[in-house]
Amino acid sequence: MAEIETDVLVIGAGMAGLTAAARAATSGKSVVVVEKSAAIGGSAQFAGYAWTAPSHEVMDEVNPDGDPELRRALVDGFSDGIDWIRSLGVDCADAVTVLRYGTGHQFDTNRYIDECRRRIRSHGGEVHTSAETLALLPLDGGVAGARVRLADGTECEIHSPATILATGGFQANPDLASAHIHPAASEMQLRSNPTSAGDGLRLAEAVGAATGTDRSGFYGHLVPTGVRFRDPSDFVALSLYYSEHALLFNLDNRRFTDETVGDHLTTMDLLEQPESRGLLVADARVYRDWITGSYVEGAASLDKFDLAQRRGGRCGIAENLDEFAYLPEEWGYDGAAIAHQIRSLNAAGADGQPPRRFDSSPLDEGPYYLVEACPALTFPFHGIRIDEHGRVLDSAGGTISGLFAAGSDTGGLYNRAYTGGIAPALVFGLAAADRAAC
Ligand SMILES: Cc1cc2nc3c(=O)[nH]c(=O)nc-3n(C[C@H](O)[C@H](O)[C@H](O)COP(=O)(O)OP(=O)(O)OC[C@H]3O[C@@H](n4cnc5c(N)ncnc54)[C@H](O)[C@@H]3O)c2cc1C
């Protein structure tokens, strides 16, 4: 079997893996990257913003049950992360508000991916695509590299004092989604790259890594039921970000959550409702201000209702609340009951239940725009436990020597909360590379 020696081995060439590899190469380390798919970039190629909570106070408020050490490290490391992106010659726009409580920078993730690869190669590093990682190489209770099958079928042992797992989570594995997110999670449409199927988790568990936290949720968005993604551009186009200004009713014709906290949080709650589907109701004001507008400064705007309708989603327009009585029976909702609740909510204003903390404006301007929605899955919050340096923890709370993880492979940072996916991949990718280079 062929043998390769390197200072740093990175498994997975998306945001976390390429960041770690480019940083380690810049520090003068020899680097080998192995990527399962035929192309690099992972889900990072679909993203547009590096963002997170702007302060510890905001992070603690919006993500109170996340690992305190990781929460702190993410906020503290964010601006260095932005400087790092800029140091590769990739522009990061001025800061804007993201999802009401976050701050972030728009940047060209595809340009960043290319620049990372260029940096790795120009420093003598290797990037192997279509490569399968078979197992980690254990050594004295730690990890000393991995056994890999390269694209031409050759098997080799890559020996390295530092191995960084960055395979992007397990969202493409329905069994793991059911086991760790929710029994109904395997039914969700995949809103991510198709290759993140839990390989990092499996490799880490095989050498005794600690994992967590089950049922901590996932990042995803509401999409129209019955509409399949045709290609990755649909991931954003079909996401119903405007739900935070609309009302969502379950099959019991009840609101069950505060929609105004954010579409990504409502998405988690809808998964747990009957049949994981609900009726999303907007009025003419919400249509004008939010459905056809852009959800974050700099993002393209698109009429989400029109698209959902054209793509065959369950959509309808009611001129007024009386017309809710004519909802198609096969959808399973009692339109008159829903209309009654909207009237009561409009009358109650800020006292309506469940509360609508961030937008309690009435929905009283016809016509009404109705879309049946369901959750789609981008990545889970359960994963490999790490410390703030990206070192993988074992079940006794110690670290597994030679093993690091970053990005969506990791767990513990978020618990039923979210402040960005690019930012933790960036910050902990850099941290892992810096510690690996010590
Ligand atoms: C449509 C969309 C829009 C998004 N927008 C944003 C945004 O604006 N801001 C934000 O913060 N987040 C956003 N995200 C989330 C963000 O893209 C991810 O959180 C981020 O890419 C995670 O980085 P990662 O390196 O962990 O995973 P990825 O970037 O997905 O990379 C993982 C890589 O590992 C590879 N891999 C899998 N298994 C193996 C294996 N066994 N061996 C080797 N390689 C393997 C995969 O093929 C992939 O290339 C978005 C996601 C999507 C899908």
TrEMBL record:
Listed cofactors: FAD
UniProtKB keywords: FAD, Flavoprotein, Oxidoreductase
UniProt cross-references to Gene3D superfamilies, sorted A to Z: FAD/NAD(P)-binding domain, Succinate dehydrogenase/fumarate reductase flavoprotein, catalytic domain
Keyword Flavoprotein: yes
Source organism superkingdom: Bacteria
Pfam families attached to this UniProt entry: FAD_binding_2
GO terms for MF: steroid dehydrogenase activity, acting on the CH-CH group of donors
Domain FAD-dependent oxidoreductase 2 FAD-binding: 7-421
Keyword Lipid biosynthesis set for record: no
PANTHER family associated with the record: FAD-DEPENDENT OXIDOREDUCTASE 2 FAD BINDING DOMAIN-CONTAINING PROTEIN, FUMARATE REDUCTASE
Protein name (Swiss-Prot/TrEMBL): Succinate dehydrogenase/fumarate reductase, flavoprotein subunit
